[in-house]
Amino acid sequence: MPNIKEVRGLGLMIGIELNEPCAPLRNKLLFDHHIFTGASSNKNTLRILPALNLNKQEADIFLTALASLLAS
Predict the structure, then answer these.
(1) pLDDT tens digits for 17-29?
(2) Residue 44: helix, strand or coil by DSSP?
(3) What is the b/e burial string over 26-58, where b = at least 16 CB atoms within 10 angstroms of the residue's CB?
């Protein structure tokens, strides 16, 4: 994806660094898709720290929402 600069993490602790501030993306994920994400001190990094009982269907919902928002 052209908007993603870097993906880093360990296990389920994931940081997605974007080429732009992530606040608008976080708001759309929260209010349009009811998906809560975190922020970091770097305003361009979206933090993902799901519960350890995350299943594939829930991960797919997040990835689908993220891809659709990044494409628009």
Answers:
(1) 999 999 999 999 9
(2) coil
(3) bebbeeeeebebeeeeeebbbbbebeeeeeeee
